[in-house]
Structure formats: C-alpha cells, structure tokens
Amino acid sequence: MRGADISRDPCPWVILNDAGGAFAMGAIGGGTWHFIKGARNSPYGERFRGGLNSMRSRGPIIGGNFAVWGSMFSTFECVLKGVRQKEDPWNSIGSGAITGGLLAARGGWRAASVSAVFGGVLLALIEGVGIAMGRAFAQQPPALAPPPPSQ
User: Fold this and answer.
1) What's this model's pTM, rounded to 2 decimal places?
2) What are 5-51's pLDDT values in tens digits?
3) Does residue 73 carry a pLDDT above 80?
C-alpha cells in the first residue's frame, strides 16, 4: 500500500491493541471521575470508601464503552485502508462517522445521522490539529550556504 504507516502493527493486531488502549483510558479516566463523584456524594467519614465503591462499580463499565468505540473505530479504519488502498486522514474521518452512526443506530435514523456527523466532525478536528501540529513543529531543513567563489 502506497504511503503505508510502517510504525504500526498490521490491521488485525491494531484492532486488539486499540481496544486494549481504549479500555485502559476509559477505566482509568472513568475510575478517577467516579471516585471523585462517589467521594463527593458520600457522607462525611465515608468519603474514601464511597469513592472506592463508585470507582469499582462504574470504572470498568466506562472502560468497556471506550473499548467498544476503539475497536469499532479501528475495524472501520482498517476496512477503509483496505478498500481505498490509501492511508490518509479521510480514513479516520470516515471511521469516526461510521462508528458514531452505528453506535447510535438503536436510537433511530435521526440519532444515527446526528452521531455520524458529530463523529466525522470530531475526527476531522482531531486530524486537522494533528496535521497543523506536525507542520508547526517539523524540523526545517538547514539552509545551505552558497558555494564559495572559485578563484
């Protein structure tokens, strides 16, 4: 495939890797969020225990939700790479749109289309920021001095 990203694993392994990474992010972030929420909603003297209970009960659920999103996104990105035979930002944007639409499909066509647009726009923003940062922080080639005059 032309322009293939050789720093990543092949597609079947990328899906599992991204699902695991998404689960870890969701479990850590969700666990932290629910620990704070549980501690704040617990009575005085039981705040730490309430935070732990809330973290234990809700953290893995949030991690699982993130894993589903991450694995669906990676699957669709691999499919688009294979179908289009290109690796460019449009694969990520399309994958975000398809993932958002399918995850909201149970809510009807209107909810699915709104979520698809939102997923595509969100991934377009992420890709745009990534491209802008890459250009802003790319190393400039050193300026070459003109050759010395020959005598």
Assistant:
1) 0.79
2) 556 678 888 999 999 999 999 999 999 999 999 999 999 999 999 99
3) yes
- DSSP, res 4: -
The token duo for 132 is 């802008």
C-alpha span between 47 and 38 (Å, rounded): 7
Question: Shortest CA distance to 102 belongs to which of 62, 64, 69, 125?
Answer: 69
Residue 35 near residue 54 (C-beta atoms within 8 A) = yes
What burial class does residue 65 get, using C-beta atoms within 10 Å of its C-beta: 0-12 exposed, 13-18 middle, 19+ buried?
middle
HEC sequence for 68-123:
HHHHHHHHHHHHHHHHHCCCCHHHHHHHHHHHHHHHCHHHCHHHHHHHHHHHHHHH
* Contacting residues for 92 by C-beta, under 8 A, at least 6 apart: 77, 123, 126, 127
Q: Which residue has the tokens 């990676």?
A: 74
